[in-house]
TrEMBL record, chain A:
The gene is gcvPA. This is Probable glycine dehydrogenase (decarboxylating) subunit 1. The glycine cleavage system catalyzes the degradation of glycine. The P protein binds the alpha-amino group of glycine through its pyridoxal phosphate cofactor; CO(2) is released and the remaining methylamine moiety is then transferred to the lipoamide cofactor of the H protein. It comes from Geomesophilobacter sediminis. The glycine cleavage system is composed of four proteins: P, T, L and H. In this organism, the P 'protein' is a heterodimer of two subunits. InterPro entries: GcvPA, GDC-P_N, GDC_P, PyrdxlP-dep_Trfase, PyrdxlP-dep_Trfase_major, PyrdxlP-dep_Trfase_small. It catalyses: N(6)-[(R)-lipoyl]-L-lysyl-[glycine-cleavage complex H protein] + glycine + H(+) = N(6)-[(R)-S(8)-aminomethyldihydrolipoyl]-L-lysyl-[glycine-cleavage complex H protein] + CO2. Belongs to the GcvP family. N-terminal subunit subfamily.
Automatic annotation (TrEMBL), chain B:
This is glycine dehydrogenase (aminomethyl-transferring). Residues 347-442 form the Glycine dehydrogenase C-terminal domain. It catalyses: N(6)-[(R)-lipoyl]-L-lysyl-[glycine-cleavage complex H protein] + glycine + H(+) = N(6)-[(R)-S(8)-aminomethyldihydrolipoyl]-L-lysyl-[glycine-cleavage complex H protein] + CO2. The lineage of its organism: Bacteria, Pseudomonadati, Thermodesulfobacteriota, Desulfuromonadia, Geobacterales. It comes from Geomesophilobacter sediminis. NCBIfam families: PRK04366.1. It is an enzyme of class 1 (oxidoreductase).
């Protein structure tokens, strides 16, 4: 049963109006030789039977494990109000707001989202969301190529490796070149990054905090990039921006990131949303939907999709991007989250992450065979060097219900004893101390 | 309505942050801290609830209004799928990448594998990846796979062919995958001009992107021939799955000769559109393209357990993890619950509803291609244009009468297009009410056209000044 309401009598009436004898006749334009050779699916189920299967799968999804892992996705609180408001069907069962008079709810919310994400990143303009952190970074790279008319990107290898892989694929398709600069331990190699920027460089891409958790001021790098006519692209972590210096304050040209930490549950990989903010001068180069304020004939304020001439449905192959559906509902969750926490709340949340992480660092660094690898400041993630291969330790601790961190080895050659540990506000002092005890036992 | 910022009162807050159980740390050095807290709204939870509830009431949505938006498949999104999709909230995808991690996440891995198998059977493809996060993202992924295939065969083909009736995302996606675009016009019979296509085909063409049924809602009788012509020239054929809702159980693109397909879970497989996403755009391929699928792959071992494997020859990673998982979970639930017969019924009833709509409206509205349609029908407001009434005026009138308008001005090859897709979940009664208002609009167009120019008048705002929006360019509430 496919939620199809028409009764056999109604179907007969409709067929009579159409002037055919059967539903099958409506498919007569399809030649026999093109008919499906197979459609081998099981019979349908009731809601109850379906949910029994779904609950079995959910019971085997690691939700009971204590997470000290990040990798760009963070185990943060999600206030109940986020689920309830974004769960209003008027939001989630609407389409992209092509008819603005009957979509002011979505449009105004996205305008408020654009405003909030600009304030958070310290930038001037935003679009209405992209897919995720990795694709947002790729779009930022393409945007920099368009703006500068150049074909080469410098990438700090301490940018999230998952995001870098996505960027690599997008750049490869367009035969653009990227130079990856190895980090200096857990910190970006600022001198090598500076030296790599030339008059051919479209952009230099960095991330703050970086994949190892280190927090850096990129103000001088922005200046250096600008001297060569290149752009600074900064990957950001929204919750960290409650505390750390904004890319806007550093002089960044394009800021991107994954909005997951703003009220979107982990959900085994999505949906989340990507964000992208920039300065006013580059707004026409932004990919995706942009919401703008305007008025109707009576002077009443309203919101519309604007600068649509950049987009695929108008410009086709000359569009700034192919993006059509974005992650609107997840951006709405981000807006509700930012509004619920508010100005002080987000600062408090960020400070709490910082305090918990500093506490964990102090506890772990007291364990024999464990050292903190970051030389400078971190936010809520840091890298530990262990006396044994990190993968072995993580595997062992996982059997005890604790995900101790993300071993670096698969992503950074030769760093097999290092482990990135994430401590959000949800981790308790007791959980941190339990991990410390287990670590000690595993070394 | 006021903006959330206009409700803000300094010092007010909505959510209580957990109390710290650790000592206060030495502060982050000043040079690394932001100068001022982000100027986010300061509101109480009730302010927040009233604000967003108020906003939601300014939307038309499937749950509140008939929404026959052509090409978008705005079917009812069953509530049980929402329950199913929310079961995995605290499952961290990075667990699957840890040593010993996959055994902790067998549930979601089995779901991904199961959905891939369901979609492969439904589309007649050999393997599926769920990584792409939306339809257009699937298109780009599919064309990247095709590019990798040609490259592996030592060929550097330059062009991708699209019909002029294609979705704008097709040429845009192919361009992002590095191709130049060749556009083929529509023939008088309503589909891609076969002679022009033959003439454009050569050994520099990497792929042809087809939507079938096409954006006019017509099943192309030459589709197998198009696949053959492309294959003879060494090109591959891409199936845009936007209109898959028309052919479930009737036609499988893989049987017809297509090499690559993307499907929109947010169209055919019952997941909600979210006001513009999140969608999900899995890509299916025939066996010769499996090596080029994105990394990583979810695999089933001989012992029946699921693992995650790198896919070294593939195009790399197109999104961060395994796709929009909670959307995929809804689609898996939808396919599992409907089953074989339910899915066939979906397409049969979608096609029946569209043909009923077409039969009832064609006396008053110009039907450029008067043949049996599939899941949607495309009219033109050309008759109404004689009285100075455009498709947009009819669309706005429908809003006043409580209906979301059909898609207008698409496809581009129909003047004043009105594209109606009722979907299978709407009843005859709902369609009859809509038809009555459409006929009434035609009558008003003949007799009192100026009334249509003023519509809508029942909405919180009337027609908005889009030129001003683009010129003044206010995209953010200034501090």
């Amino acid at each position: 049963m496919g939620y199809c309401p028409n009764t056999p009598d109604e179907i007969r009436e409709m067929l009579a109006v159409i002037g055919v004898g059967s539903v099958e006749e409506l498919f007569s334009a399809i030649p026999d030789k093109l008919r499906a050779k197979s459609f081998d699916l099981p019979a349908g189920l009731s809601e109850f039977e379906l949910m029994r299967i779904m609950k079995e799968k959910a019971a085997a999804s690691g939700q009971e494990i204590t997470n000290f892992i990040g990798g760009g996705l963070y185990d943060h609180i999600v206030p109940a109000v986020v689920d309830h408001l974004s769960g209003r069907a008027e939001f989630y069962t609407a389409y992209t707001p092509y008819q603005p008079e009957c979509a002011q709810g979505t449009l105004q919310a996205l305008y408020e989202y654009q405003s909030s994400i600009c304030r958070l990143t310290g930038m001037e303009v935003s679009n209405a969301s992209l897919y995720d952190g990795g694709t947002a970074l790729a779009e930022a790279a393409l945007m920099a190529l368009r703006i500068t008319g150049r074909n080469s990107i410098v990438v700090d290898a301490s940018v999230n490796p998952f995001h870098r892989e996505v960027v690599q694929g997008y750049l490869h398709s367009l035969s653009a070149h990227s130079e990856v600069i190895a980090p200096d331990g857990c910190e970006p190699a600022m001198d090598r990054l500076m030296a790599a920027i030339t008059d051919e460089t479209a952009a230099v891409i960095v991330q703050n905090p970086n994949f190892f958790g280190s927090v850096t001021d990129f103000t001088e790098l922005a200046k250096k990039a600008h001297q060569h006519g290149a752009l600074l692209v900064v990957g950001s972590y929204p919750v960290a921006l409650g505390l750390i210096k904004t890319p806007g304050e550093m002089g960044a040209d394009i800021v991107v990131g994954d909005g997951q930490s703003l009220g979107n549950p982990l959900s085994f990989g999505g949906p989340y949303f990507g964000f992208i903010t920039t300065t006013k001068q580059y707004i026409r180069n932004i990919p995706g939907r942009i919401i703008g304020e305007t008025v109707d004939k009576l002077g009443r304020r309203g919101y519309v999709l604007t600068l649509q001439a950049r987009e695929q449905h108008i410009k086709r192959h000359k569009a700034t991007s192919n993006i059509c559906s974005n992650q609107s509902l997840c951006a709405l969750r981000g807006l509700i989250f930012m509004s619920a926490l508010g100005k002080e709340g987000l600062s408090e949340l960020a400070a709490l992450n910082y305090d918990k992480s500093e506490y964990a660092k102090s506890v772990f660094s007291g364990i024999k065979g464990v050292t903190v690898a970051n030389r400078g400041a971190t936010f809520n993630e840091f890298t530990l060097t262990l006396a044994r291969p990190a993968a072995e330790v993580v595997e062992k601790l996982l059997t005890q219900g604790i995900a101790a961190g993300l071993p670096l080895a698969p992503y950074y050659e030769g760093r097999d004893k290092e482990l990135v540990v994430t401590v959000t506000e949800k981790r308790t002092k007791a959980e941190i101390e339990r991990l410390a005890g287990l670590l000690e036992g595993a070394l | 309505m006021k903006l959330i910022y206009e409700l803000s009162v300094s010092g007010r807050s909505g959510v209580r942050i957990p109390v710290s159980d650790v000592p206060k740390a030495a502060p982050l050095p000043q040079s690394l801290r932001r100068a001022e807290p982000a100027a986010l709204p300061e509101v109480a939870e009730l302010d927040l609830v009233r604000h967003f509830t108020g906003l939601s009431r300014r939307n038309y949505s499937v749950d509140t209004n008939f929404y026959p938006l052509g090409s978008c498949t705005m079917k009812y999104n069953a509530k049980v799928m929402e329950n199913a999709g929310s079961l995995f909230a605290d499952s961290h995808p990075v667990l699957a990448l840890l040593p010993g991690g996959p055994e902790k996440v067998q549930g979601p891995l089995s779901l991904i594998h199961g959905l891939e198998q369901q979609l492969a059977e439904i589309t007649g493809m050999d393997e599926v990846t769920t990584q792409p996060l939306a339809g257009a993202h699937g298109e780009m992924t599919g064309i990247m796979v095709i590019a990798a295939y040609h490259k592996a065969r030592g060929q550097n083909r330059r062009y991708v062919i699209v019909p002029d009736s294609s979705h704008g995302t097709n040429p845009a996606s192919a361009a992002m995958a590095g191709y130049e675009i060749v556009t083929i016009p529509t023939a008088p019979y309503g589909d891609m001009d076969l002679d022009a296509f033959r003439a454009a085909m050569n050994d520099q063409v990497a792929a042809v992107m087809m939507t079938c049924p096409n954006t006019l809602g017509i099943f192309n009788p030459h589709i197998a021939e198009i696949c053959e012509i492309a294959h003879q020239a060494g090109a591959l054929v891409y199936y845009d799955g936007a209109n898959l809702n028309a052919i479930l159980g009737k036609v499988r693109p893989g049987d017809v000769g297509f090499d690559v397909i993307h499907v929109n879970l947010h169209k055919t497989f019952g997941t909600p559109h979210g006001g513009g996403g999140p969608g999900s755009g899995p890509v299916g391929v025939k066996s010769h393209l499996i090596p080029y699928l994105p990394t990583p792959r979810v695999v089933k071992g001989a012992d029946g357990t699921f693992g995650v494997e790198a896919h070294p020859e593939g195009i790399g990673r197109v999104s961060d993890f395994f796709g929009n998982f909670a959307i995929m979970a809804r689609a898996f639930a939808y396919i599992t619950m409907l089953g074989r017969e339910g899915l066939i019924e979906v397409s049969e009833q979608a096609v029946l509803n569209a043909n009923y709509m077409m039969a009832r409206l064609k006396e008053e509205y110009e039907l450029p291609f008067d043949i049996t349609c599939m899941h949607e029908c495309v009219f033109s407001a050309s008759r109404q244009l004689k009285d100075g009434v455009h498709a947009i005026d009819i669309a706005k009138y429908l809003i006043d009468r409580g209906f979301h308008p059909p898609t207008v001005y698409f496809p581009l090859n129909v003047k004043e297009a009105i594209m109606i897709e009722p979907t299978e979940t709407e009843s005859k009664q709902t369609m009859d009410s809509f038809i009555a208002v459409m006929l009434e609009a035609a009558e008003v167009a003949r007799t009192r056209p100026e009334e249509l120019h003023d519509a809508p008048v029942t909405t919180p705002v009337g027609r908005l000044d889009e030129t001003r929006a683009a010129r003044a360019l206010q995209v953010c509430c200034e501090l």
